Amino acid sequence: MKVLAAMSGGVDSAVAAARAVDAGHDVTGVHLALSQQRQTFRTGARGCCTVEDAHDARRAADVIGIPFYVWDLADRFRADVVDDFVAEYAAGRTPNPCLRCNERIKFAAVLDKARGLGFDAVCTGHYARVVDGLLHRAVDPAKDQSYVLAVLRPDQVAHALFPLGDSCKDGVRAEAADRGLAVADKPDSHDICFVPDGDVRGFLSRRLDKRPGELVDAATGEVLGRHDNVYGFTVGQRRGLRLGRPAPDGRPRYVLDVQPVTGTVTVGGADALEVSTLCAGVPTWCGPAPSLPMRCAAQIRAHGEAVPATAELRDGRLHVALDAPVRGVAPGQSVALYDGDRVVGQATIG
Question: Residue 332 needs a FRET pair 20 to 30 A away by CA distance; which of 63, 183, 220, 230 works?
């Protein structure tokens, strides 16, 4: 097959590209220039998509012996991922930008362009597996990234290669060293790539007008204090509330709800964070649409625990009844459904 290998400049995508070559594919490497400030350099494991990453990807392609190009998708990334991230927070929701990037950039913009150029598939360094045309979890549960790939449609899964799905991270690093790839010991990127300093609140404050408001006790309706900007809060947050006095029972308070229009942030005890039913939007199925209602496992965070559940459609929207409650579910998060290791699909919690 003619394969386009998306090379981020990290160890995973480099080894994935090398394995695609070993499998006999005709491989071309491409680095996605997503940042509009690429001349800045990453600090340790924070951020990605910098000029340093582009250089690392090119050097890896040279060692592997494949052609290499850089595609400038910065404008598309800003519109589809960064602006979406800001708009979601402005609406009081908690988005997952990595999921959105996979959906709209790597497996929409890139795959569409690759197919138009005559490539048969896109290869990435994600830890996931495609088995008989269906998306599955990776073998290594600690590195599994199937949650952020659950947005893929069947036609996208059919043209995706994930060569690392059967591997563990230590083995991948050892293989990179054996292949002479300089990125073998490069730290994994963490946090949100376009917020390299990790300060999401500061990032949002530079893009959204401040919306001060009140901190209100959910149980009593009492105003416990005021805040400078509602966009600095998300459901489940404990730190940074600055309430000035403890709850009557002495236990910590958490953010339970955020209302951007009024600026009201409602807080309460941890028990009030428990949710047993998830109401989400129109689902995306990774394979054939399942027969609903169905028993499945539901996961609401990239590395969260999957909970046994029953999923059904009501007026075209996905509703998930959990066998055991989970805490800290925020509007804007994704709920991914699994049948064993197979990814069934996902929907955005409303």
Answer: 220
User: Which CATH superfamily is 209-268 part of?
Assistant: Adenine nucleotide alpha hydrolases-like domains (2.30.30.280)
Q: What is the pTM of this model?
A: 0.91
Domain 273-348 in this protein, CATH class: mainly beta
DSSP helix, strand, coil percent of the chain (3-state; round to 5)? 30, 30, 45
Report pLDDT digits (tens) over 133-169.
Answer: 999 999 999 999 999 999 999 999 999 999 999 999 9
**Among the options 48, 49, 101, 296, which is catalytic?**
101
Q: How far is CA 41 from CA 48, 50, 75, 272, in A?
A: 8, 6, 20, 42
Q: Is 98 a catalytic residue?
A: no
Residue 134's H or E segment, with its range, is: strand 134-137
Angle (nearest 5°) at CA 259 between 307 and 76: 75
Residues 51 and 47: their CA atoms lie apart, in Å, by 12
Assign domain 2-125+163-185 to its CATH architecture: 3-Layer(aba) Sandwich (3.40)
User: pLDDT tens-digit profile of 1-51?
Assistant: 999 999 999 999 999 999 999 999 999 999 999 886 655 544 554 556 678
- Per-domain boundaries in the chain: 2-125+163-185, 209-268, 273-348
Low-confidence ranges of the chain (pLDDT < 50): 41-42, 45
Among residues 48, 49, 123, 193, the one annotated as catalytic is: 193
